[in-house]
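Troubleshooting: if your tokenizer reports a length mismatch, compare your output against this known-good record of 304 residues.
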Amino acid sequence: MATFAKSSFDSTIYATFRPTYPRSLFNFIFRYHERNEGARWDRAVDLGCGTGQATVELTPFKRVTGVDPSCKMIEVARGTLQKTPERTGQYEYIQASAESLTFLEDSSVDLVISAEACHWFDWNKTWPELARVLRKNGSVTFWSYSQFRFAHYPSLTQRIKAYIEGTDPLNSVGPYWEQPGRLILDNHLIEVPDGNQVVPGAFSDSERVFFTGDYYPSLPSPRSVIMRKKMTWDDLLSYLNTWSSLHTFRQHNPTDGETPRGDVAMRFWKDLKEGAEREDGRPVEGHDEVDIEWPLAMIMVKRL
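Known-good structure output:
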């Protein structure tokens, strides 16, 4: 993902304000992995690991490798790791792409995950690499979360969609997402091909799980939302400022922040806060807390 590799992208802010994944999600993954008798727990790999938020949750594995093409992300991940020296023997971070895992031997990996990154992969190259490096009965679990939602302010959903998907180049970030990755993410990874479509006979049938609640009722067998966070309104604004599309927007519109209501992210945030004030019938302050949810889609498959 080109934006995250740019020198002007702040990886530290990204690491601080991006939502984290619940332990229940990893427990779900581990239960899937141990379905097969004789499942091994020696080596796990996190593709597109970013700053390592998901990597460090792979605690049952003896050796864990985070992989990302961005040197800035790897730098932040390694810096965080140095602050927890008890983990340094278990974890490592390597700059590489999901399409070229040359540092891994054949049949050497038990679990491969990817959190909020697989929509950028070239699957004609990634699936063959996974078929090569995974052991028999090894597991693959990829997931991505889509547009955030307010648990208690459903009336604001249309405003969120207009900001994220809109076509207005001055008042939305819609035109500034890198494609087709963002479209694949917003479509809940439906466009990601099954492994056997690329490497026939290498994998089990894919299992697709949608922790999307009532937000997308047309998806098959949606489960309850599991990714949620209580944050202050100020932290929500900081989260909005981590978006790659906003980074690109600012490059194209360098004077946007001179408007009376602030730049495009500030204007959007103010619109949301004012909408919450109308519903609550009281002023909303930046330090007030709000419940945020993220619908999440997951693909799971095993190496045969």
